[in-house]
Amino acid sequence: xxxxxxxxxxxxxxxxxxxxxxxxxxxxxxxxxxxxxxxxxxxxxxxxxxxxxxx
Length: 55
Hints:
Blueprint: E1 2-6, H1 10-22, E2 26-30, H2 33-42, E3 47-50
Parallel strand pairs: 1-2, 1-3
C-alpha cells in the first residue's frame, strides 16, 4: 500500500512517515499542498493523509 502524507509540521511529518514505514507501507511526504498535488499527479496512492488546516 502506498501512502502520501501531507503535513507542514516537519517533526510530525517525519514521525508519521517513520511509523508507517515500520509497518511496511510505502510512503511519500510533502510539506505543502502544491507538492502533494505534484505527487498525486505522478503516482497512484491508496491513501492520502493530509493536515486539515493547510493553506
